[in-house]
Amino acid sequence: MGAQVNTFNTPGVKENCHFLKEVEDAQKIRRSVIDCFENAILPGLSEEERRTSLHFVIVGGGPTGVEFAAELHDFFSEDLVNIYPMVREFVKITLIQAGDHILNTFDERISSFAESKFARDGIEVQTGCRVLSVSDKDISVKDKAKGQIFQVPYGMVVWSTGIGTRPVITDFMEQIGQGKRRVLATDEWLQVKGCQNVYALGDCATIDQRKIMDDISAIFKAADKDNSGTLTVEEFQDVMADILIRYPQLDLYLKSKHLRDVSDLLRDPQGNSRKEVDIEGFKLALSQVDAQMKSLPATAQVAAQQGAYLSNCFNRMELCKKNPEGPLQFKGSGRHSFRPFRYKHFGQFAPLGGEQAAAELPGDWVSMGQSTQWLWYSVYASKQVSWRTRVLVVSDWTRRFIFGRDSSRI
Q: What reaction does this catalyse (predicted)?
């Protein structure tokens, strides 16, 4: 089902803004861009009217808004200025961001690089500004630091501030008792909570990861095989593999604390090894683990992995019912049929135009510049669903490099 554009109930957005969600949105933007230039070259217009017609505003400084602003600048500077040279000095792009920086989900080095790149390209970035309303002629914006409200006239405005829940999902959530949530909740196996044989993935849902402290007593009981009331290091290690699979936040906690072995969790407050620990000491050792829980980003990378995971589970459902491969059921008997879904982050890219891109990859590796753009080309082509689409995408890039972009109105 995916999601829809989130307007935050801002007046005038649905009526006057373009969006970056569906194929129809792209076609509408293409037509509007050409219309703005065609209107700007009409005789008898004042300079102010031409500037307004060629003022393109993007609301939202996330990856989508930044990439669109960069691509729009390249389209102007590399192609449209050759067709409309008489109005090239009137073209302006403004990016409005409510936060203090654009690309604020990326590393600070990438945010700074993107802002300096846009400054060199002449793209105006207005941070710390919130859009109050959008009319057919201008945008009402509030500077949060100064408290001032000002109007921004525009020729075209694109809204890219995040996603919201589709009405059909909202209705479904009401029916299953999730009406107070903002997005559909699933368990770690992507099954919708409160439903049987209903699964959800992608932007319409989020995984409601179970907290380890909610099951701490059951975990202790399962590990304490001799019912002694205390847990030895050996007993803890026997169930540790199942705990790591069932509660991925524990693995993140071990890495954040630079702990080499799970037995280090059972050390006393002074860091000394202990042969055994009681239930209270066990709770204390794991009390900070759930702080590592994080929601997955609403990206295609997550949805693709979830789709592959579910298809694999469905294909082996009968087999795994007979031979469960999942972790222990600490509040029940036996094992779960499947291992829970585990997301693996492969990094994220931010194309910045002018054959420049930035990337944040696993291992705290940050890359910026032209070489990163070619890396982005490689990754983008490799992620296509078939060799046919790979050839189409690469051939389109090749035609663009040789002949430029097609500026015809569609």
A: a ubiquinone + NADH + H(+) = a ubiquinol + NAD(+); a quinone + NADH + H(+) = a quinol + NAD(+)
- Structural domains present in the chain: 3-164 (3.50.50.100), 167-336 (no CATH)
State the angle between helix axes of 216-223 and 233-246 in degrees (0 to 180), rounded to the nearest 10. Answer: 130
What SS3 class is residue 108? Answer: helix
Is residue 159 packed enough to be buried (19+ CB in 10 Å), middle (13-18) or exposed (0-12)?
buried
Average pLDDT over residues 196-206: 95
In angstroms, what CA-CA distances link 367 with 104, 344, 356? Answer: 16, 20, 10
Residue 65's nearest CA partner among 142, 162, 138 is 162
Closest CA relative to residue 277, chosen from 261, 287, 256, 263 = 263
Give me the pLDDT at residue 276, please: 85
Residue 118 CA to its chain's centroid (Å): 22
**pLDDT tens digits for range 119-133:** 999 999 999 999 999
Better pLDDT: 234 or 142: 142
